[in-house]
Specification:
- The chain is mainly alpha-helical.
- Among the domains are: 96 residues, no CATH class; 87 residues; 129 residues, 2-Layer Sandwich (Heat Shock Protein 90).
- The chain is built from 28 helices and five strands.
- The protein has a five-stranded mixed β-sheet, with helices on one face.
- Helix 4 runs antiparallel to helix 5 and helix 8 runs antiparallel to helix 9.
- The radius of gyration is 36 Å and the shape is extended.
- It starts with a helix and ends in a 10-residue tail after the last strand.
- The N terminus and C terminus are likely disordered.
Length: 758
């Protein structure tokens, strides 16, 4: 009996708790939102540019409410107007919306095309906010294309633009959305500090706006974030308490702003989350709070007709009843949950399937086999409904795909349909036999075996049935594939005569050209071999030259560092000691002057040490690139400049010589930025990918014209390019005046030198 309760409790939690974690969804009348946006859109004059921004919201709402044709029509109409305007920000905004909509609809090529157009029009605009929004859109697409490293860089560029943009009605909303996207990416990377940082930024922004809806969402996001962290390490009770704190603040925000929050169903969301938190992670003394918030969620869900929320609250109550050893009450709660789920306009049959299974398990635990069979039959009927619907959907897709072939091959199609019907009848007969066999097994268990053996056998039979259903589905798909192959074979036989003629003609042509191709191929291979050998020799010579140059530079740096530290450093230190000894032997006026001289000598010694350390960083040799860069960032940072170093997915250390090259490149880039751009912030990001490393140095300084810098023979740029060439990498610069500069260089890992090509 106890074992059965444990298993049932685990499944019931899986059924209902997942329903309560929809933190960011707002259930409101979709038609009401569309009507409001339509009214705003139609009340603005066509000549007013503000109509184009409202059109973007209206297009998005239409798209998400399955009115794609109307959304596309309005998009085309407004694009024609936007393209006539001098400022490209309006066209860029609409193209960005088109790119995201096409990505959701899996039209990847159209999405890329729209994004490129959005970038082009944003570049021609002086509006800084639209540049940030296009970078946000690019990051959003990278996330959906599983390129999270590139997405983070796009989001950070977007935030840089947003900070420099003047205030506008849309600026804070776009900032908040970018923060939430960064929070999601860093959560996937388990970067909890960065996740918490951007979650707090979203919360602070909501509080500054004094927007009750945004504040409520931010509190819910923070509570859920800390709850997820606690689930990974349940020893951190302070994290659990933070989750409780933010859930309670969300409830308090709702209670204080009921008239300003248009989504009353939000209260049932947070109440269910808090009830589950108390039930799963707090002591038994919190059971009263579990019941209080579950009942609050139930009442609010009934008042707002959110039947899924009501079912979730009943699920928590059922878990609590099972924990207290009250299966009858748990059964009542489950039946009530089943009733509420059925009231939904589109009931989720998977939830109903799980409820029937849980009710069957309770009946088994009570040795009520008749009721267990009844609920299990309902479970099987629901399962067949889901299975048949999936098969029907599969048939519809095949019918749409091969519509023209069916019109030409009516006889084959009729045979295919007959085969499908026979398979469905066979499937129904198999299910009927399985149900009869199950009944016989249950009777046999009731007469001859103990209660524990009954439960074990029932579980085994259910797994067997699932396996048989899976095999039947596989056989059905295999039959469909076989019929499709027969259709193709039939067409091939019809066209065999024509294909034979074409093959004879091609064979004759191939015989005529065979000798010429063989000779051309031999000559081409000889030429390619010669060119490959020549290129290899040139590359080896270039690498040898670069190796000698870089080795000489580092040796000279080491010699200078040792000479400065051992020679000039020792001389300055001895001079300081001598002056210190003379200080007590001279009069007061001269003593003050000598004390100032000693202080200046201390400053000179410290500056000497800094120069020697830059010439040959000791931390790099001892602890590696990460420690050396972080120490360099701390030394170079001051009240006017913040240097931030980020290592993402940095698992395997670079070789020592490659670490030194990367350090010198970053050192040269940071020095150039400080010397020429007057930045306030510099971000150094090192990302380890599967087969290469990507290093980015970004600043928010004055920027420059890239075309002008390419024409200058700069020694610093030459040194950087030579080191990147030695790493066999690629080097790119992006800069814009008054915005900042981003320098990125990529080089491959040594293990993949022969296979990776950039």
């Amino acid at each position: 009996m106890s074992k059965n309760k444990i298993s049932f409790k685990h499944k019931l939690r899986h059924i209902f708790v997942t329903l309560s974690f929809c933190v960011l969804m707002h259930h409101t009348s979709a038609q009401e939102v569309l009507n409001n946006l339509k009214l705003q859109y139609e009340n603005i004059a066509i000549t007013n540019p503000d109509r184009l921004y409202v059109a973007g919201k209206y297009i998005t709402a239409l798209f998400f409410n399955q009115q794609e044709e109307k959304a596309a029509q309005i998009l085309d109409e407004n694009l024609q107007v936007a393209l006539l305007l001098k400022d490209g920000k309006y066209a860029a905004n609409l193209y960005a919306i088109s790119a995201m909509n096409n990505r959701i609809a899996e039209r990847l090529k159209d999405s890329d095309t729209s994004l490129e157009k959005a970038k082009a029009y944003a570049d021609n605009s002086k509006d800084i906010e639209i540049k940030g929004y296009i970078n946000y859109c690019e990051g959003w697409l990278h996330v959906r294309n599983n390129k999270e490293g590139e997405a983070v860089r796009s989001f950070l560029r977007a935030i840089t633009y947003f900070y420099k943009a003047p205030p506008s009605p849309t600026l804070n909303g776009r900032k908040s959305t970018t923060y939430k996207e960064l929070t999601s990416v860093y959560a996937n990377w388990n970067e909890h500090q960065l996740q918490e940082k951007y979650s707090m930024l979203a919360l602070d922004l909501a509080i500054k706006q004094n927007d009750p809806i945004a504040i409520f969402d931010a509190y819910m996001l923070m509570g859920y974030m800390y709850e997820q962290q606690y689930m990974k390490d349940e020893s951190k009770q302070d994290v659990r308490n933070l989750a409780e704190k933010y859930y309670l603040q969300a409830i308090n925000t709702y209670d204080k702003n009921k008239s300003k929050i248009p989504f009353p169903s939000n209260l049932s969301f947070v109440a269910n989350n808090l009830a589950h938190l108390y039930f799963s992670y707090f002591p038994n003394s919190y059971q009263n709070k579990v019941l209080y918030y579950a009942e609050l969620a139930r009442k609010q869900g009934l008042a707002t007709q959110q039947y899924t929320h009501v079912a979730s609250s009943y699920g928590i109550m059922a878990e609590l009843a099972i924990k207290d050893g009250k299966p009858d009450r748990a059964k009542e709660y489950l039946l009530a949950a089943l009733t509420e789920v059925s009231k939904s306009s589109v009931p989720d049959e998977n939830i109903i399937l799980s409820i029937y299974e849980s009710l069957s398990e309770i009946a088994e635990s009570e040795n009520n086999l008749t009721e267990a069979i009844r609920y299990y039959k309902a479970y099987m009927e629901t399962f067949k409904s889901i299975y048949n619907r999936e098969q029907l959907e599969l048939g519809r897709r095949l019918e749409a795909q091969f519509d023209k072939e069916r019109q030409q091959q009516q006889l084959i199609t009729m045979q295919l349909e007959a085969d499908k019907k026979e398979q469905q009848i066979s499937l129904m007969q198999t299910i009927s036999l399985q149900q009869k066999q199950e009944l016989e097994n249950l009777k046999l268990h009731e007469e001859n075996q103990r209660k524990q053996l009954e439960l074990t056998q029932l579980e085994s039979e259910k797994r067997t049935q699932e396996l048989k259903l899976s095999r039947l589905e596989t056989q059905s798909r295999a039959q469909d594939i076989l019929n499709y192959k027969n259709e193709i074979s039939y067409k091939e036989k019809i066209n065999k005569y024509y294909i034979s003629l074409i093959l004879v003609f091609l064979l004759a042509l191939m015989l005529l050209l065979y000798a010429y191709k063989q000779r051309s191929k031999r000559l081409r291979q000889n030429k390619e071999l010669y060119n490959a050998t020549l290129d290899k020799e040139r590359q080896n010579a270039k690498i040898a030259t670069l190796t000698a140059m870089l080795s000489g530079q580092e040796q000279e740096r080491g010699r200078l560092a040792r000479d400065l530290h051992d020679g000039l450093g020792g001389l300055l230190s001895s001079t300081k000691i001598s002056l210190s000894q003379l200080t007590n032997q001279v009069a007061s006026p001269a003593k003050n002057n000598m004390q100032k001289s000693i202080e200046k000598l201390d400053t000179a010694v410290e500056e000497l040490r800094r120069v020697a350390h830059n010439l040959m960083p000791e931390l790099l040799n001892r602890y590696g690139l990460q420690e050396a860069l972080q120490d360099y960032a701390r030394r170079m940072s001051n009240d006017q400049l913040d240097i931030d170093v980020q290592f993402l997915h940095y698992i395997s250390d670079l070789e020592k010589d490659r670490q030194l090259l990367v350090y010198r490149i970053i050192q040269e880039l940071v020095n150039n930025a400080i010397k020429h751009a007057s930045p306030k912030q510099i971000i150094i990001q090192v990302v380890e990918e599967t087969d290469h490393y990507s290093i980015t140095v970004e600043d928010d300084g004055d920027g420059f014209d890239i075309h002008q810098i390419k024409g200058n023979n700069s020694a610093g740029l030459y040194n950087i390019q030579s080191r990147v060439d030695f790493l066999k990498g690629k080097f790119s610069i992006q800069s814009e005046k008054q915005v900042g500069t981003s320098v990125e260089f990529i080089f491959k890992k040594i293990l993949h030198d022969k296979n990776c090509d950039y």
